[in-house]
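Researcher: For the annotation table, I need structure tokens for C-type lectin domain-containing protein. Please keep the output clean. Sequence:
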Amino acid sequence: MNDSLSFQYNVASKQCGVHVGRFRSAVMPIQDPNLLIYWTYYKNCREDLGYTFYPDDNTCVKFHSVKKSWMEANLVCDTEYGHMYLVNSLDKFDLLKTVLNAEGIANGFFYLGGTDQFMEGQFSWLDGSTYTNFQGSPNNENGEEHCFGYRAYERGLYDITCTKPLKFLCEIPILPK
């Protein structure tokens, strides 16, 4: 897909760059704060793949009802030129509720694009940003909860097991016009 720009930033040197095309996939989150951080933005929403464009947030979102493990869900999103949905701002949290309401979803757990399975105890979104505002979590129940989930009826973020098949959301960030 050539209608994209990838953003690169080196935290240590504070230098950034932009590359035409998809620079890397977003299958694994950033693990070291000094590593280069890459993110890809696209010119167009992939409506042909079932994504819906939300112009106020410059993002396209797709709800997947076929249940997958967290890693399988992450690969599905990556295959569709996106990444799992990130709730890295209040606006993105509001958009999540809007998307689920549009889908008629009032119950259930859903995977989101965050985990601590690459660095135990340090939850981060796939873009490298951290998150700590869980509802009574993260509690890493039985030492097995390493992925972000959203519980629709409680409208809250939780740490949950990564292997349980769940529904999930993908997003494709769009370049501002």
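Researcher: And a one-line annotation?
Model: Confidence is low (pLDDT under 50) at residues 25-30.
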